Amino acid sequence: MKGFGSGTGSGSGTSFLHSSTSVELPLKIQRVASKANQLLKENPTMSALFNFRSFLTVVLLVICSCTYVKMHFPTLLQHKTGFRGFFWKAARIGERLSPWVAVGCFTMGVSIIIS
């Protein structure tokens, strides 16, 4: 157990508790966090998932697009489960709640034009 915890790593006594690892881990995390903060300052744009207004716009576009595709090409959205099932459900929302979806699209369009 000569090399255990000493950080030398010599021979067969390679340490699982490498002393430099336990000290550098927080420094590595700090470096990654500072790099992420730098990237955020350089590129302040957000993903649509983190900006509520953009998220609503994407959801409305998906609903409207799926409804349109289902009306013109109904065989594409026949599967009610799996990956295409998500788009079938979006098309169903567009069919059944079309007045509310239309109001949402109109409101979103006006808010985009105003701002």
From TrEMBL:
Keyword set includes Transmembrane helix: yes
Entry keywords, A to Z: Golgi apparatus, Membrane, Signal, Transmembrane, Transmembrane helix
Residues passing through the membrane, by range: 55-77, 97-114
Subcellular location: Golgi apparatus membrane
Any single Gene Ontology cellular-component annotation: Golgi membrane
Superkingdom of the organism of origin: Eukaryota
Topology relative to the membrane: Single-pass type I membrane protein
Pfam families in UniProt: DUF1242
Entry keyword tRNA-binding: no
Similarity comment text for this entry: Belongs to the KISH family.
Its job: Involved in the early part of the secretory pathway.
Protein name, as recorded: Protein kish
